[in-house]
Every structure is written in C-alpha cells, then in structure tokens.
Amino acid sequence: MSVEGLDPRAQALLEQLERRVRPTSKDRKARTPEHRAPTSALRSPPPVKPGGTRSRDDRHLDLAQIDAPPAPNTYAEALVRGGGPFGNRESDVRVVLLPSPEYRAKIAWLKHRVASTLGVDVYTAVQALQRDVPRALGSFADAAAADAAAARLAEAGVRAVVLRRSRIEAWEGPREVTSITDRDEDAVAFRLKTGEEEAVLRRHFRVAVLGRIDPDPAERASGGVLGRTAGPYTALDLLVRDDPRPLRVRSDAFDFRTLVDGGGISALVNLKSLAAEVGAPLDERFKRVPHLPALARQGDSTSSPLFLRRELELAEYVLIMDLATA
Asked: Is the CB of residue 314 less than 8 Å from the CB of residue 233?
C-alpha cells in the first residue's frame, strides 16, 4: 500500500507493518513449513511405529472408528427406536385408534371429534376412521393426557388404546411353541421351544393373530438377520388372558402332526386349523398393515441383527391387540 505525503522511511515502515498483519503470497510460502502442517497431514493419521499403537494424545480423529449406536438385540430395545406403521416408536405415549365398521355411519361428526381431540386435520381423521387396521394419531409426553384423550374418544363411540413406552420396554416378546402335547375339552397343552410344557384353558384364548413375515431385499442381502430367523415364514400369535407374552406358532418350526386332524400339506391351512382347534378368534388383518422396508445401509441403529423389520411390525400389532382385547 502506498500513501501520498509520507517520506520514504515512513512508507517502508508502513509496508513492513502491513506484511505482519496480512502476509503476501511470498511470505505464506516461506512460512508454511514452520507455521503450518501440510494439508495431507489433516487427512492421514499420524504414523505408527511397528508394534506400537496409536495414542489418544495424537489428537487424530479417525471417522471410520466412531462408535455407532449399538444395534438393538431384544424386542424391547428394537420397538422403542425409529418409526413404524404405528407412529413414532420413541414417543412416551401413543393413542392408537382401533378399526370398526360402525364409524362409517357416523363419520360426518366423528371426524371432528377425532380431529379436535388428537390435534390432527379433518382429512387425516377421516382416513383413520375408514381404515380396517389400527392407526396411531396422537403422541403424548404425559400419560394422563393420553388417557383423557382416549376417554373423550370413547364417549363418542371411537375405540382407542394407549400404548405406553414403559409397557413396551417391559415386554419380553412372544414365547415359541413347537407342538401340542395334550388336549381335552377344557385345555390344550403345548411344548415350548425351551422344552417346558404349558397348559392353557380354552376360554383363556383371546385372539389368534396371523402374520406373514418376509425379509426385505436389504435384509436378504445382509444375510445376518435371515440366518437367525430362517425367514420367510408365517406366524400365529395366540394371545392368552392375563399373560402379556403370546404363544407363537411358526409355520417353519411347529410339528403340525400333533394337530387333532394330523395336519395337512399347507402351513397356512394348518395354522388356521390350530386357531380353530384351541377356540381362538382368528385375526388376519396384519397383512393390510403398511410395511416400512429396511434401509440398505450400515450403521442403521433402528435395525436389529435378531429381528426382521416385519417381525417388529407384527410385534407392535400384537401389543396393540393385547391392549384391545384385555
């Protein structure tokens, strides 16, 4: 910079001060080795001596080694992460509308009650009332507010259940059964996968939920989940009175020869026969529950190495039916 009116000595001093504040390109090049590490050093980890380990004091951040959230390994862990067909799984409390053909005749005014109670628009309320599967419409942080909302809906003839996160976290999942060991007019005895036997009174069977479990393409490609669950298969969950854990019959893991009719060649027919044999009403609506496919990416904290995505959706549906038939 040059300023008119300054003598040569003052002009030289001013230029020297300017270089100290804003170095020239020549100055930057000269100072780089002394004052600044080359760019490559920011992208590469510091060298490690043979037989040595990298120290925390190196202050080097290796992005590939950042720990991702651990994958859920139980139903309780998996069912409180991410989202599903029944709303945000991380919500403390959800209000879930139950389907009924009776809503159609009164939908003109029921839609306003649902919309005002749950804070949704009228169009969403109409869509929920017309569905034949449960629909989560409201998420609450306060259980009392959710209970009050469900009670207000009940006054108008709309059935709803309150699904609490605390209930999900305490749920241990279904108990698998492998055969029927005995039966009489009052009870049916099952062999559990654990080797134990359990007898259930026929009048205690509340509902039998039928659901097809298919792995997503991403789950097939990973191989990890499919190898543990041996899918695809069809499940029949028998909900029993006063027991939060249903008895699960898997089409690929049950001895249908123990049915009263000896079983047939169709696993689906056999499962329906089993529901009829124990006297449980059959619920086949799960096939109409929307499916949210798994993502083909690593580090997806909402995926589990033990459960297929559709298995988790069936578990949510069974939890809702457990509340609905309690």
From this structure: no
